[in-house]
Amino acid sequence: MQPSTTDWMDKIPEAARSYIAGRRLDEVECIVSDIAGVARGKAMPASKFAKQASFFLPNSIFLQTITGDWADNPSGAFTEPDMILTPDYSTASAAPWTADVTLQVIHDVKDQQGKPVEAAPRNVLKRIVELYNAQGWSPIVAPEMEFFLVARNIDPNQPIIPPMGRSGRRAAAKQAYSMSAVDEYGKVIDDIYDFAEAQGFEIDGILQEGGAGQVEINLHHGDPIELADEIFYFKRLIREAALRHDCFATFMAKPIEGEPGSAMHIHHSVVSTKTGENIFSAPNGNETETFLHFIAGMQTYLPAVIALLAPYVNSYRRYVPDFAAPINLEWGRDNRTTGLRVPISDPAGRRLENRLAGMDCNPYLGFAASLACGYLGLMEKKLPRSECLGDAYMSEDDLPTNLGDALDILAECVPVREVLGVEFCNIYESVKRNEYKEFLQVISPWEREHLLLNV
């Protein structure tokens, strides 16, 4: 290891130090999340990184759509001024799939006046966490990640199909919690565990979900920013693990027709920064009125943030009845048909699970959007409607059913725009409307099949 790396190496997590112990560090990837959750940045030799306190990227990376197009800049001319990126050494993590010894480091994003860039998704989440902190609270989240392992698909015109398992048969659906189903692609799971261990990430559990080749990974509860960083990293490591075994990992909300979609369920609790106690539980162990305020905030404002929790046209294919996806704002205790579920727990672990978010959402923005709703509920101190005691799949709620409607609701909700940041919301809306407009220009196979000769 080069002597010049000593100072910054002392600041990085133990897992990263252990990964490069006794070896020469070759490269450092300096990255940030764009609007979609794609890693953008630069890779540089470790010796150069050690001598460089910051680097520059144009602010246009937050105007780039998922297709690589550029959205209109709602703030004015498209001049692409540089932003200043500085390393957050606490995020340093191995890239164990690379041929050489490489670390990844997430960077903080500020403008040339030293102010946080509002459009940066990690800054949006920091903004929300700071609102909680100002009230003497610390938000806690615990995410569940669902994704599909699928056969390689190099022709977008062909449907996605399940991967081939070690038995020589394709992965089967309707095998939720089956250990033998997970064993079908056990080598991929083994690499996921190995990569996660090298990166210092703790996995609470891996299980087979209901779809063919669908897997769920549960993460420990903790600080929203740290866990969003982990999911940001996890998506990449899971994709890399799949590629090693001739398949793809996809986080699309609905990749396979007729199969369930992939969610990112988010469990929420809030603790007092003064006492460390869960503010959702009273000293006698009962639910507090504060807990009900949080639920009410979710019911009131989730429609306005669906555009962040379901950010693509494909996201809304997940919101269909009878596919284990919530399409309502009901809440209930231990009721998985509700969009807002209160899991069984002891008083210290009392929490609310938001089941609406898709796994295709940017984790920083998914956490920020969900926490923003709860925060507004805590501040407004309203009460939720009555608990749903039956099948909430039969309920009807004013949830948007497509991206265009979701963006319209976001554009009109002043309280949500103020807590997330008006500048961010304007940029986000511009990017997503550009994507939606581009999608509407595509002629689908369904249209060719049923309309070409029949209308």
UniProtKB/TrEMBL annotation:
GO terms for molecular function: glutamine synthetase activity. One of its GO terms (biological process) is glutamine biosynthetic process. Residues 121-455 form the GS catalytic domain. InterPro entries: Gln_synt_N_sf, Gln_synth/guanido_kin_cat_dom, Gln_synth_cat_dom, Gln_synth_gly_rich_site. Gene3D superfamilies: Glutamine synthetase, N-terminal domain, Glutamine synthetase/guanido kinase, catalytic domain. Its cofactor is Mg(2+). The keyword Ligase applies. PROSITE patterns: GLNA_ATP, GS_CATALYTIC. Keywords: Ligase, Magnesium. SMART domains: Gln-synt_C (SM01230). It holds the Pfam family Gln-synt_C. Belongs to the glutamine synthetase family. This is Glutamine synthetase.
